[in-house]
Amino acid sequence: MNTKLLRATTLSATLVAASLLIGCSKKEDQATKDAEAASQAANQMAQQTNGAAHKASGVAVPGKTLQTFLPTISGYTIQGEPETMDMDMSGVKYTSASAKYKNGEKQIDVSVFDYNYIAGLTAAYTAMMNMNMETNEESWHSDKIGGFPAWSDWKKKSNEGTIGVVVNDRIFVTIEGHGGVSQDELKSAASAVNLSGIAGAAK
Q1: Residue 90: left if φ>0, alpha if ψ -120 to 50, beta else—which one?
Q2: Potential cystine with 63: which of 8, 84, 144, 158 (Cβ 3.0-4.6 Å)?
Q3: 10-residue mean pLDDT series, the chain (203 residues)
Q4: Count of domains in the chain?
């Protein structure tokens, strides 16, 4: 459970670190513009997060149900049994399902989290949807997959990346590629997730 819950915090910290590095590497006037843009993005993120936080939490989609939406990835073999989790702590409900896929040295990890409008866990993902960055080593862009808001983070030199998709403001899908996975393979894996099924289950 701790690993899953800490992932959002880690992603948020990564975002903050990235913004600091960008600010230090640019001239003062450009850094000022970046700060203003970051402030606007933060305000937008806060508004979106507050909106989700005021929605009724209801019942989280069971982990075993989330598992049925995990994809079959062409050329890849699923490793072992998918992992699922259902948590209820003082009325706060959270569920997840995840699986690992291998093709030689290449690996794709797919995870589905029902954060059930828990603002503290959705904030990092909301920020990522509003970020666009291009450097010599990394490409990070807002996107849409299957009609749902998403982001893509690609490490150019190591051929590693992450795609995230947000379904109905409460279910977050992450697709992570390692070991030489191509961008096309990562996008194909993201498209293979049953996002419409997830949306139907999260009503």
Answers
A1: left
A2: 84
A3: 40 38 42 42 42 59 97 96 91 92 97 83 70 90 92 91 91 95 94 96 87
A4: 1
